[in-house]
Specification:
Blueprint: H1 9-29, H2 34-52, E1 55-56, E2 64-75, E3 78-84, E4 90-91, E5 99-107, E6 113-120, E7 131-137, H3 143-149, E8 156-163, E9 175-181, H4 185-197, E10 206-213, H5 222-231, E11 235-241, E12 251-252, H6 257-263, E13 271-276, H7 279-291, E14 307-309
Parallel strand pairs: 1-4, 9-10, 9-13, 10-11, 11-12, 13-14
Antiparallel strand pairs: 2-3, 2-8, 3-7, 5-6, 5-8
Helix pairs in contact: 1-2
């Protein structure tokens, strides 16, 4: 998030007018104090300006507590959690493509308590100050996801970051091919939104996304994805369902080599494939992409890899 423009209403109302009134009033009442009034106006204006700048709050090695402000139920096991940041101008300071770590002391079956840490990618961005949103699906065996599902508004979570090997920069590649499964959509959505926000300043990156789910009801944020695809001709989304409804016209079954060949960009130096989803899915897709001519994915991905798994 950038600071407001120097000609913005916020600066006119909050800095220029008060400073002008201070100087003008001093000039009328006691003219010899005018130079001091000018200096004071400049100092107060500078203070107001620096207070208006976005403040990054994340610390990579220190957990901090953030309060749950709002909880929006999406389905029986999926919700969007909105957490407050310390001030209306605060931002996480999370680079596009990176994630945060959430830690919690979770009671184990034997009665002991164990510190569990899991990584999540917010679906909000630093262009939205004052809060951050997490889309989380709770699983019966998921320690942190169950903990999140039990949170009530007003309770807190512990967060640190940023974390991750991928950082998006505009036009870093000509074309992204993305494959996501379930909640693996979150880092993809973050990158897609950043690309579309960057169109006015010259981001020409093309994106094709394959989004795999079990049923049509499992497709998370479908309205958002469809709206983005409608808004931007450089972004296309292709849905794949394991159990499609009658009349379904999208992909069926698991993501195959034929689907990748049909929908995603061909291997090239200016092409990158991004993967995020359940481990078995990612393991299979690494082998499939290699068989199609993409460079072999490493066990732990690095930014320069052609096939990158979050």
């Amino acid at each position: 998030m950038a600071a407001p423009s120097w000609s913005s209403k916020a600066y006119i109302d909050g800095i220029y007018i008060p400073a002008g009134l201070l100087v003008f009033g001093t000039f009328i009442v006691k003219r010899e104090w005018t130079p001091a009034a000018v200096l004071l106006a400049i100092a107060l204006g500078a203070l107001k300006y620096f207070r208006s700048l976005p403040k990054k709050v994340l610390k990579p090695d220190t957990f901090q507590e953030f309060e749950l402000k709002e909880k929006t139920i999406i389905s029986h096991n999926v919700a969007i959690y909105r957490f407050s940041l310390p001030s209306p101008t605060s931002i996480l300071g999370l680079p596009i493509g990176q994630h945060i770590s959430i830690g919690a002391a979770i009671q184990q079956p034997d009665g002991s308590t164990k510190e569990i840490v899991r990584s999540y990618t917010p679906i909000s961005g630093d262009h939205q100050p004052g809060y951050f949103d997490l889309l989380i699906k709770s699983y019966p065996t998921g320690n942190i996801s169950k903990h999140m599902a039990s949170l009530a508004v007003g309770q807190t979570i512990r967060v640190k970051g940023p974390k991750g090997a991928f950082v998006y920069t505009p036009n870093m590649v000509r074309h992204f091919g993305m494959i996501a499964g379930g909640t693996g959509i979150t880092p993809m959505l973050q990158v897609v939104r950043a690309i579309i926000r960057g169109r006015p300043t010259g981001d020409k990156t093309q994106v094709d996304l394959i989004f795999a789910n079990v049923t049509e009801q499992d497709i998370l944020l479908k309205e958002d994805l469809d709206a983005l695809a409608k808004e931007d001709s450089g972004f296309r989304v292709h849905y794949v369902l394991d159990k499609p409804p009658e009349g379904w016209t999208g992909g069926v079954g698991y993501v195959t080599g034929d689907m990748i060949t049909k929908w995603l960009p061909k291997p090239a130096d200016d092409v990158k494939i991004l993967l995020c989803g359940p481990p078995p899915m990612i393991s299979g897709l690494k082998k499939t992409t290699e068989s199609l001519g993409y460079k072999k994915a490493r066990p732990v991905s690095k930014l320069e890899d052609q096939v990158f798994a979050f």
